[in-house]
Amino acid sequence: MDDANEEDLEADRAAPPPFRAAVDALRAARLRPQIEIEPTPAPRRLAPYAYALEATVVDGDQDLADGRLVLLHDPAGHDAWRGTFRLVTLVRAELEQEMAVDPLLPDVCWSWLTGALQTRGLMYGEPSGTVTRASSHYFGGLSERPASSQIEIRASWTPREGLGGVPDTAAHLASWCDLLAQVAGLPPAGPGDASVVTLPQRRGPQSR
Question: Are 73 and 140 in contact (CB under 8 A)?
Answer without folding.
Answer: no
